[in-house]
Amino acid sequence: MKNRSALNRTLLALAGLALLGTGLLVLTGGLDLYRRLDIAPPDGWPYTTPGDVLLTDAQRTRWTGDDWWWPTAIAALAVMLVLALWWLYAQLRQRHPGGLPVGSPPVAGVRLNDHALAQALTEDCSHIPGVKDADAHLTGSAGSPRARITLTLAPHTSPRAVSDALRGGPLRRASRTTGRHDLSTRAVLRVASHRPHRAD
């Protein structure tokens, strides 16, 4: 999820910068600011006076008479459309399981909010000996939820002991609560940074 959010922010930032740059270029030329402010634009700089156009007739019709032009243009537009629809589908696709059934068999009319379960997992994991910080998230669907747990360990803590305590404690209780014995879990263990001890 974090990777997807970072990708979205990067793409939106690049698109915003491109649109902002193009808009400033057109606005500067359209208002004739180069002449009014006595600024000399670089050689070959486009759209420097109100009479300039972004694309001349010759530029717009340069390849239209060639056999390859229209198939290439249509294929490029089709690829752009497919990529845009794929991105839209990825944004609209549900990223959280939402309400989870409780119990085995599930109790009718009772649903457990995925955020509440994630908070409970975070709190439960933070009480494991040797864990300085915990963070839990649920992804996937209600029928196939997945847990992602990040634990920051105190220096000199045994990762195996923490992993065993995680399986025997928080994950077992979460499985019992949801009635799932196959809760897919990915645990990331990190060690908190610490200053080296000086040996005398």
TrEMBL record:
Region (Disordered): 159-185
Keywords, comma-separated and alphabetical: Membrane, Transmembrane, Transmembrane helix
Membrane-crossing residue ranges in chain numbering: 68-89
Protein name stated in the entry: Alkaline shock response membrane anchor protein AmaP
